[in-house]
Design brief:
Oligomer: single chain
Number of helices: 6
Strand content: 25-35%
Distance between the termini: 15 Å
Number of domains: 2
Shape: globular
Radius of gyration: 16 Å
């Protein structure tokens, strides 16, 4: 049975898309997933299943829609895929503050025209690297006013995407390894 990392997009931000993590754990366990655990309140779930990552995502999206009435997009990685993301760490030598270092997890690869838009949006101080279905982005001046971050966080990438800071990425991997 494989470990899966389920990343919910856009929940528990302000007053919208509120989902209680204990309720979410209970829902997913009742669906048949095993060893369901959550990290923080922002939609990071680790669970075990024999299903493919795509099937896990579809099942979780449907269960959340049925139970909470929310249309939440989900990106799933296996434990080994997440470990490879951490091991790769192409900006590890420059991204010295893990809270300002983000990984955007996507359901598919970006089209080259979207990558061009990211290049145009990046501030001189920012760096990013696209590797397959992930974008590693270093925002040394913070993400709040970053045009690059706005593109990565928006819906204009042409794929489902959700981002986590480096602290969360490594913490979720540690949770998957427990």
């Amino acid at each position: 049975m494989a470990r899966h990392i389920v990343l919910l997009r856009g929940i528990n931000i302000g007053a919208r898309n509120r989902i209680s993590m204990p309720e979410l754990r209970e829902l997913l366990a009742s669906t048949g997933f095993k060893d369901v655990r959550t990290y923080l309140q922002s939609g990071n779930v680790v669970l075990s299943s024999r299903a493919s990552p795509e099937r896990v995502a579809r099942t979780c999206e449907q269960q959340i829609a049925d139970r909470f009435g929310l249309d939440i997009s989900i990106v799933v990685r296996t434990r080994d895929e997440l470990a490879a993301v951490v091991e790769r760490n192409p900006l590890g030598k420059v991204a010295v503050n893990p809270k300002l270092y983000q990984v955007t997890f996507m359901s598919g690869e970006l089209d080259s025209d979207i990558e061009d838009k990211l290049v145009a949006a990046a501030d001189k101080s920012e760096q990013f690297v696209v590797v397959g279905r992930e974008v590693y982005a270093w925002h040394p001046n913070g993400a709040a006013r970053s045009r690059l971050w706005s593109l990565l966080a928006g819906r204009g990438l042409g794929v489902t995407a959700t981002a986590r800071n480096w602290t969360t990425v490594t913490s979720v991997l540690a949770l998957a390894d427990e």
